[in-house]
């Protein structure tokens, strides 16, 4: 269950009626060299990194390279958790 792009990943999800996390787990089990418990730890670490990266600009607003202030948008943005994002896909 391998893929090379986000589009291929989403296609696999729809074709197999799986969510992204299920496809990623199956991919690591079939393509990787780690034991299942090590795979779970690795995927949880990746999830934590992605959550932190997606929330940092809202928690600690900074000006963008173009000079826009991201912090001003904070009150008008509905912040979704990764679980909500997967459900909404």
The proportion of strand residues reads under 5%
What is the total number of structural domains? 1
β-strand number: 0
Helical run tally: 4
For the termini, the CA-CA separation is 20 Å
As a whole number of angstroms, the C-alpha radius of gyration is 16 Å
Per-chain topology:
Elements: H1 6-16, H2 20-31, H3 36-59, H4 82-88
3D architecture notes:
- With 89 residues, the protein is mostly helical.
- The protein has one domain.
- The chain has 4 helices and no strands.
- Helix 2 (20-31) packs across helix 3.
- Residues 84-89 have low confidence and may be disordered.
Label this structure with key terms:
mainly alpha, disordered C terminus, 89 residues, single chain
Outline of the structure:
This protein has one domain. It is extended. With 89 residues, it is mainly α.
């Amino acid at each position: 269950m391998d893929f090379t792009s986000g589009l291929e990943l989403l296609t696999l999800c729809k074709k197999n009626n799986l969510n992204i996390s299920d496809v990623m787990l199956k991919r690591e089990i079939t393509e990787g060299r780690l034991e299942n418990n090590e795979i779970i730890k690795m995927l949880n670490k990746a999830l934590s990194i992605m959550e932190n990266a997606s929330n940092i600009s809202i928690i600690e607003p900074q000006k963008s390279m173009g000079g826009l202030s991201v912090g001003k948008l904070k009150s008008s943005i509905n912040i979704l958790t990764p679980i909500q994002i997967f459900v909404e896909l």
